[in-house]
Amino acid sequence: MTEKKDILSPSGQLLDDSTGKAHIIEIINLNKNYGDLHVLKNITFYIRNNEFVTLLGASGCGKSTTLRILAGFETADSGIVQFENADLLSVPPNKRQINTVFQRYALFPHLNVYDNVAFGLHLRKRPDDEVKTRVSQALKTVGLSGYEKRWVDQLSGGQMQRVAIARAIINRPRVLLLDEPLGALDLKMRKEMQLELKEMQRELGITFVYVTHDQEEALTMSDTIIVMKDGVIMQIGTPTDIYNEPKNAYVADFIGESNIIPGKMHRDFEAVFAGKTFECIDPRFAEMDDTHNDVDVVIRPEDIYVKAENPDYVNGTVQSIVFKGVHYEILVRDDNGFSWMIHDVDPVLEGQRIGMTVDPDDIHIMRKSEFSPDRVSAEVIPADDAGSAEDIR
């Protein structure tokens, strides 16, 4: 029996974790500039084998640039990119075990579905019997068996996206990169394709690296989400971690809707905000003392209970109410002038006085940061506050 050999990263760390899955890609201190614009700023993360990883952020955050460097369509100015412990940056794009699906699909309009999917195999001069078998398998995987003779302009947006994926997977890549592939689809089709893509990734057993600015897509499909802003990683975590335990006000506000309230912590497991003292499940941060105890308090709109006005609650006046289908979106201004967003299944009336309360485990405490809503400027977040790959895995 061959002894298992440990795979080490360039930094000397063992490229394995509690899941038993080795890291297929490791990125260390990656930088990219376009002239004076610093697009990527020393970003570091890893990707496990067979993982669905999403790079999430607003336009211009650097997520697509990262993807293009992995694909070989862009060069890095500095940093390390390893694929199974070997340098990836020196490998030509056509030699990488990586394929890309673009937002616009890039299908050939003069070819039918069969020839679009078979294009890469024809370039490699594979035998006709092999091409036929592999095209059939690829189309079956994406649910398009029987569409071989269809022309591209006879397909719906969702079908074109499936053809693009079939063309990408037919070359049997180890990693599939997807750059906002659902952006051109309508809302209903996007939701259907989100579930199909996740199921497809499980069936194929390959690593997906997905780029999107859509928070719902990221939460629905991902094993791990990497939140980016201005070329910097804000947080790495599972969808549950990112939603329930944001590291700073930017992540809390970007992922879903949040009430971010200025507060203080005079002692462990107790937060003061909105003129009241609340029990919570978070201790004070290690650097806090009696004079440095400002925090940001995050409360999700669905975690607020609407009650009758009461001196023990945070009281306020309903400013507006909008029906959203599964809940009402209620805006309340409290007696301290802070605006609260509430999601509740029961309606209230504009102008109505109400009380608001929240459970201790629904109060999340964060350090003050440059993204805090009540600050114009503040200290820069320490690098370890973004949540390293090791912290969250």
Account of the 3D structure:
The strands form 4 sheets. Strands 6-7-8-3-9-10 form a 6-stranded mixed beta sheet, sandwiched between helices. Strands 13-12-11-14-20 form a 5-stranded antiparallel beta sheet. Strands 15-19-16-17-18 form a 5-stranded antiparallel beta sheet, with no helix packed on it. Helix 2 (113-123) packs across helix 3 (128-141) and helix 2 runs parallel beside helix 4 (157-169). The chain is of the alpha+beta class. Strand 9 (224-229) and strand 10 form a beta hairpin. The model is unreliable at 1-20 and 375-393 (pLDDT under 50). The protein contains 9 helices and 20 strands. It is 22% helix and 31% strand. The two termini are 30 Å apart. The chain folds into 2 domains: 23-244, P-loop containing nucleotide triphosphate hydrolases (Rossmann fold); 261-368, Nucleic acid-binding proteins (OB fold (Dihydrolipoamide Acetyltransferase, E2P)), CATH 2.40.50.140.
